């Protein structure tokens, strides 16, 4: 599975940005996709995720009510609409896909990552 992100950039506090992530390759193996972010000096954290089939979503408490994740299965693409952005949302945002691989008697889930896209929110 290969992930390519787009979107991001610089925005003032209170503004909006949208990210997208297109998956290619063995997309039928993807269990779920999501967005993580990493600010300088901090650990990478989950922002939002969405399952492949039912579209069940999960959000970090810090973004609930402001961010919305969605998907277009026909294009193997997920989106992250970010509204009411805050300076603390500034980070490198990574697209993630959880790829399940069956090999004989074992099954493992691998994390696949995009290259990251910068989101900077000025105060």
Keywords:
seven-stranded mixed β-sheet; 123 residues; mainly beta; four-stranded antiparallel β-sheet
Order of helices and strands: EEEEEEEEEEE
The largest pleated sheet is described as: 7 strands, mixed
Mean pLDDT: 95
Uncertain runs with pLDDT below 50, 5 residues or more? Answer: none
**Outline:** elongated
* Derived structural class: mainly beta
Quaternary organization: single chain
Strand content: over 45%
Distance between the termini: 37 Å
Helical stretch count? 0
State the share of residues found in helices, binned by percent: under 10%
Number of E-type strands: 11
Radius of gyration: 15 Å
List the helices and strands and how they pair.
Layout: E1 2-7, E2 9-12, E3 17-24, E4 30-38, E5 45-51, E6 57-59, E7 67-72, E8 77-82, E9 91-103, E10 106-113, E11 117-122
Parallel strand pairs: 2-11
Antiparallel strand pairs: 1-3, 3-8, 4-5, 4-9, 5-6, 7-8, 9-10, 9-11
Description of the molecule:
With 123 residues, this protein is mainly beta. The protein is 0% helix and 62% strand. It contains no helices and eleven strands. The protein has strands at residues 2-7, 9-12, 17-24, 30-38, 45-51, 57-59, 67-72, 77-82, 91-103, 106-113, 117-122. Strand 5 and strand 6 form a beta hairpin. The chain is elongated. It starts with a strand and ends with a strand.
């Amino acid at each position: 599975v290969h992930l390519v992100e787009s979107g991001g950039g610089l925005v003032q506090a209170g503004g909006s940005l949208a990210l997208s992530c297109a998956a290619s390759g063995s997309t039928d193996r993807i269990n779920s996709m999501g967005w993580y972010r990493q600010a300088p000096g901090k650990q990478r954290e989950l922002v939002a995720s969405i399952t492949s089939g039912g579209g069940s979503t999960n959000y970090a408490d810090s973004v609930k009510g402001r961010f919305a994740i969605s998907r277009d299965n026909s294009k193997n693409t997920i989106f992250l609409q970010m509204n009411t952005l805050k300076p603390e949302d500034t980070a490198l945002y990574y697209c993630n896909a959880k790829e399940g691989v069956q090999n004989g008697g074992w099954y493992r889930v691998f994390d696949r990552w995009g290259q990251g896209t910068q989101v900077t929110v000025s105060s």
